[in-house]
Amino acid sequence: TLTSVERDTTIFDLINKEQHRQESGIELIASENFTSPQVMEAAGSVLTNKYAEGLPGKRYYGGCEVVDEIEQIAIDRLKSLFGATWANVQPHSGAQANTAVFLACLNPGDKIMGFNLAHGGHLSHGSPVNISGKYFQPVFYGVEAETGLIDWDKVEKQALQEKPKLLICGASAYSRDWDYARLRNIADQVGALLLADISHPAGLIAKGLLNDPFDHCHIVTTTTHKTLRGPRGGVIMMRNDFENPFGITTAKGKVRMMSSLLDSGVFPGTQGGPLEHIIAAKAIAFGEALTDGYANYATQVAKNAQAMATAFIDKGYKIISGGTDNHLMLIDLRTKNGVDYGLTGRLAENTLIKADITINKNMVPFDDKSPMVTSGIRVGTAAITTRGMVESDMARIVDLIDMVLMNHDQEAKIASAKTEINTWMKQFPLYV
Ligand code: PLP
């Protein structure tokens, strides 16, 4: 029987080791978070056994009555979280969600215009190493060297020249808000569809802390595991469904709605069976995000990011664009108070991890170093806020980061920072 299968201690020992790593350090990777125990319980449930190609009520497999209910709850909760009228909760990841949108909206070779990866954009918005850049023709807009901000006038000028079929907004490392109304105006001038990928700030948008993309963007995608604090995955949403502008009709000659093309873009377009265990976990996370407790959390994430940015600036670090509106910031390590300390993103990442501070190296706009070295680091407050940290803790984190970076060749000092951090983090229990 299944219960007599020998336990795989090799893997479970490693899982325990990873749990210890997560609990004992300071997690500042902007795209990470800690899910609730009930989210993990659903992700590890019997639902992983079920095939359910299709959509609730319209499946290609029998026995889907229960997963139909679960998936419908996930859809309904997500719609109410963002004020959307249509959602697909099946994409296995954020990149999958974007690929499904491309398949629904574009033909191979069509032009897409997205935010430059080297300025903080995402691979799935047209990078030549991603399907989005191989099958479509990408052009990119970026930030200004002096301000670190996107100049919407320049985006407009470029879009009028390039005439993309799809204009994409959203980023992995942009700390400022987006002017969705302006972007829609630009998209309308060139007949482009406008896609917002809100993977990073989704939780802050859901709680009204940032501009709302839904009234302006035709389609919105997001991951579910960053600020939203759900299981790893993606979703696609629309506030207003509309007839597809490409003249694609049904067998009966009716123009297909965009929602129908997007559903097909996910399955059978880019995926097979949905992960119903993950969809159940998404449903739980969306339920959690609908609570007042989560609204307080999202507000605290933003407050912590502000406090952290201020603490870095007070120490003389250069933050791209001079601050943050959301949960993250990009720090240019080439100088501190105008002095070159020989720091790179790679050196910072490799040194901070010795003290159990996890960050990621990141290119800064107009970086002169390679993506494997980089001049910057990206830090975010989503995960540490889940642990219960508040503004006053941010200055101490920045003190520790600064101490480790300024003493990157002093192993004893780094070891003492690690001891301090491991002791400190016991005050913020995670999975008791
Ligand atoms: N879109 C943006 C803006 C992201 O930052 C990310 C992940 O970092 C993704 C998409 C991809 O998500 P996933 O890793 O789930 O494919």
UniProtKB/TrEMBL annotation:
Please give the Gene3D superfamilies that the UniProt record associates with this protein. Answer: Aspartate Aminotransferase, domain 1 (3.90.1150.10), Type I PLP-dependent aspartate aminotransferase-like (Major domain) (3.40.640.10)
Cofactors demanded by this protein? pyridoxal 5'-phosphate
Binding positions ((6S)-5,6,7,8-tetrahydrofolate)? L117, G121, H122, L123
Look at the named UniProt entry and state the broad enzyme category this protein falls under. Answer: transferase
The GO terms this record gives for MF are:
glycine hydroxymethyltransferase activity; methyltransferase activity; pyridoxal phosphate binding
Carrying N6-(pyridoxal phosphate)lysine, the residues are K226
- Which residue numbers delimit the Serine hydroxymethyltransferase-like domain? 6-401
**Pfam families in the cross-refs:** SHMT (PF00464)
Superkingdom of origin: Bacteria
Q: Which UniProt keywords apply?
A: Amino-acid biosynthesis, Cytoplasm, Methyltransferase, One-carbon metabolism, Pyridoxal phosphate, Transferase
Complex formation: Homodimer.
- The entry's protein name is Serine hydroxymethyltransferase
